[in-house]
Amino acid sequence: AQTVTQSQPEMSVQEAETVTLSCTYDTSESDYYLFWYKQPPSRQMILVIRQEAYKQQNATENRFSVNFQKAAKSFSLKISDSQLGDAAMYFCAYRSGGRNTGKLIFGQGTTLQVKP
Amino acid sequence: DTGVSQDPRHKITKRGQNVTFRCDPISEHNRLYWYRQTLGQGPEFLTYFQNEAQLEKSRLLSDRFSAERPKGSFSTLEIQRTEQGDSAMYLCASGPIYEQYFGPGTRLTVT
């Protein structure tokens, strides 16, 4: 069975600085997708970024980028130029690559605090 | 662009009562998912529909839980004979094949 582990329950960053959130996963599959979701306090989950396992190039979305290390089964999220609005719980998630599945497997989450 | 909507947003019920939640997905999405999230934890998968067909169910979905998506549009999740352990946020998501977009959730409190 696949598992996702986020080993940092809490992180903090100074506004305008850069922070990296860690995620590791375990799978025997070669075809899969990885995601980072953001969940602000009392607000809904927002998709931040997606990475296909078959792509070597790391995904980037504006200030958000990932470091995908397939051999190490590591998938970290880097947030550049942190803003107060980035404060939230961040979840790493895994999806098998099959067409007939849809289940996301989530990590435990990392709470990010942004200090002004 | 209308996102995923869920109704009600909050539900307080007494143990033993039945509750039903509704999810309206983004209109062009044929895939719909239900998850359960307890405080401070990541969401846990419950079930998944492609159009009206329920294709995957978690073992978390006990026989007290049932989900439907009768016409491939909105979906309902029913919990019968609620227990205190059912207290959680119930999240619905929809999406194309490889992405999921979440609704605001229904927070269930069983007293």
In whole angstroms, the N-to-C terminal distance of chain B is 37 Å
What oligomeric assembly is this protein in? heterodimer
Low-confidence stretches of chain A: none
Our count of helices of chain B gives 0
Radius of gyration of chain A: 14 Å
Task: Tell me how many strands of chain A there are.
Answer: 12
Structure description:
The complex is a heterodimer of chains A (116) and B (111). In chain A, 0% of the residues lie in helices and 53% in strands. Chain A is mainly β. Chain A starts with a strand and ends with a strand. The relative contact order of chain A is 0.35. The mean pLDDT of chain A is 95. Chain B has no helices and eleven strands. In chain B, the strands form two sheets. In chain B, strands 2, 4, 5, 6, 9, 10 and 11 form a seven-stranded mixed beta sheet that branches. A four-stranded antiparallel beta sheet of chain B has the order 1-3-8-7, with no helix packed on it. Chain B is an all-beta fold. Chain A binds chain B through residues 4, 33, 35, 37, 43-47, 50, 52, 91, 93, 95, 99-109, and chain B through 31, 33, 35, 40-45, 48, 50, 55-56, 58, 91, 93, 97-105.
